[in-house]
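Reviewers of the previous submission asked for a worked example of the structure-prediction workflow described in the proposal, so we include one complete record here. The input consisted solely of the amino acid sequence. No template or homolog information was supplied to the procedure at any stage.
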Amino acid sequence: MQNFQQLAGKTLFDKIWEAHVVEEITDGPSVLYIDQHLIHEVTSPQAFAGLEQRGLGVFRTQRTMATPDHNVPTINQHLPIQDKLSAFQVQKLTDNCEKFGVQLFGLNHPYQGIVHVVGPQLGITQPGMTIVCGDSHTSTHGAFGSIAFGIGTSEVEMVLATQCLMQMKPKRMRITVEGTLGKGVGAKDIILYIIAQITAAGGTGYFVEFAGSAFRNLTMEGRMTVCNMSIEMGARGGLIAPDQTTFDYIKGREYAPKGADWDQAVEKWSKLYSDADAVFEKELHFDAADIEPMITYGTNPGMGIKITQRVPKLDEIEASGRVTFEKSLDYMGLEPGEQLLGKSVDYVFIGSCTNGRIEDLRQVASFVKGKQKADNITAWIVPGSKQVEKQAQEEGLVEILEAAGFQLRQPGCSACLGMNEDKIPKGKYAVSTSNRNFEGRQGPGARTMLASPLTAAAVAVTGKIVDPREFN
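From that input alone, the workflow returned the following structure tokens.
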């Protein structure tokens, strides 16, 4: 475990980064040691093939964990995968992990699931770590006070071969949100609000630390939602200083330290915070009271509004962005100045590495208990892992959700990204708890509106976009 105590006058990011630098290249990148490497079936086959071609093995197999998630079907997972590409990629992951001695939580394994759900729930994700994965939403793990970010396939190969990575050090930004969140407002609304304020490019070049009482008062699952979407503001990643909430979440999990090792770990983790005299290249401050339930209207996560607001008018958009704005509204079938409240919706998707955790399912089940989904809605709810699925069954959530007309599917990325069978049909509107609303993200021609699990549940019940605060 790295020693963080001697790094004074530093940001949290600086402390972790400097403790992991193996070598600095003058006017170039740093060679950074990686504590934990997470892999899945989409970005790993070419990396393993590269190792084979070079006659190399995986340098530290104990620091690598694999699970299939992107391409896996979410129904009948016990049967052979029908899609040929998906079947090939999942089988290659299985073969490569066996060949190279990598820990694999494969389909039907009790720990299988979305990689960014599995890591935290098993205690693999811990404060002070550097964590990478061939997936942009690796930023999720920053919720534990770690430097976590996505990498490309060639970099996946580099980490497999050396347990190191060459990286330019990003600038540091701190986003502080103070105050108490209002009724019906949660972690997803906080991050959608921030991205709407600073745009989908507002964090470009930075690694973001989230600070302030609004974040400290979130659960770990809420913090993971925030850090998951830090990438959607263009940032390299996001992180939150660990505290007692963090330690309580990790304690007792399978891969967490035990006994005396646990006490030693907590002592070191407790030093992971930005010093009072730490300097950030950029500081932003927001008031929690200004945040309301949010929803997106366009084709990037920065195109979001409070659910009671109207879509912006053309003259409210900067001249340089008007062509993109009009193109986006044309794709979404919306008009400038249109009110979204009351608009009919076709699909509701609750799941993904953003909002497929047990707290999300609990919140939705609590809202829909005794209610029925609207007839015009197809409602999919997809647990983020087998462990979440099991918990939902044991707690009676599955029974509640099915009684309300939701279709419970098996763990996987599902309709987040349209790489599997769970796609939104062309032209249909989907309110989704996932992280991206790009053109075609949930299927060719699909029209995605991002929202919180609570808002999605309210939409499912009413069949239209509605303010969740209207319900008691």
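The longest strand covers residues 171-178. We consider this example representative of the routine output the project will generate in years two and three.
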